[in-house]
Amino acid sequence: xKKISLFAFALNxxxxxxxxxxxxxxxKSGLLFGTFALxxxxxxxxxxxxxxxxxxxxxxxxxxxxxxxxxxxxxxxxDKGPSHALSILYTVFGFVLLIAxxxxxxxxxxxxxxxxxxxxxxxxxxxxxxxxxxxxxxxTIYAIVIYFFALRGVHEQKWLQxxxxxxxxxLISLLILVALVRIFTNGLNSSNSFINFNNIGxxxxxxxxxxxxxxxxxxxxxxxxxxxxxxxxxxxxxxFVAYTIMGIIIPLAFDEVEEQCNLNYSYLSGWFGEIIKxxxxxxxxxxxxxxxxxxxxxxxxxxxxxxxHKTQKVEIFxxxxxxxxxxxxxxxxxxxxxxxxxxxxxxMLIVYIIIPIIHLIHxxxxxxxxxxxxxxxxxxSYFIIGLSSIYFLYRLFSLFYNLFS
Length: 405
Fold this sequence. Notes:
This is Amino acid transporter transmembrane domain-containing protein. The structure is a single chain. By secondary structure, the chain is an all-alpha fold. It has one domain: Amino acid/polyamine transporter I, CATH 1.20.1740.10. It contains 13 helices and no strands. Helix 5 packs antiparallel against helix 11 (312-332). 45% of the residues are buried.
């Protein structure tokens, strides 16, 4: 059960990030390129995952069940003391992503689930002025739900995470099955290419982001004991198989895949089709229910680890402030496109550059443990750091160019 629980936690953090963008990335960059890019990203993600597991269990003897105090956070491993800079990066990244979860949840439910006396509406349609009421009601509902689970901690969320990850499996199955039915009914979409050199940069960035899960491992490690050793392999295997099938089948079924592929399924009709459409369109928002509390806990853990004073009152205050501030921001700001771009760069910096650097530093001085990475090779680490640094700078310059051009 511990392994299932941890797999559910890690899967929800991964799938919630980029599942729906994979078919779009495959179609834009080419089906063959998408497959090879996903395989490469999963291999790199697995390697970084094994380094992360080794790091967060430094000095953890596991002679008794974990209680959250024996595992290490990345901010505690950078220097001899906590890294305030990394804590700030984590806080900014987590806060922007938390706002994005608020927006996804509220906009999806406003668009598909009517409230008493208020019809369903599109918050981004300026002619539907009443929609701001629906939107803010759903924002408030989401805030209450994730606040409840964030205060209870990761141990009390096991069944929630397992249920959400089960729904994730249902969603992926429906997306693939409906696409297959469409192929058998309408034939294959023949406009797909194997490699589209004009869009490989865009496709690769989506795929890389969608295969990343290591940022949340320290905050969920306390529920798992030894089960965490298998998590990088399980997550990366699931992501590669599920995303590859989706990335190939859905573009073969639709001429133009939307950036969020579930929007392509709005054509379904009839009572059965409406039920499937509702599940496909609304469920991704439900994934935010599983991801939001863990994100709030992750931010709180990093702040308290970096600045000390980890007491229950301080943790409650930080979680309360984070969720209230994110909800209030979402009340008035509905477009975070540029902020999400920056957030993706911060995530890449943390996972693909900072984690392997921290690992190299500790590998020179620390004794071996049973949690050491079986895949570790210093040449691979240096290669990943170098390649990631080049790609990070390229994305950063591209972002600034697009913002100011």
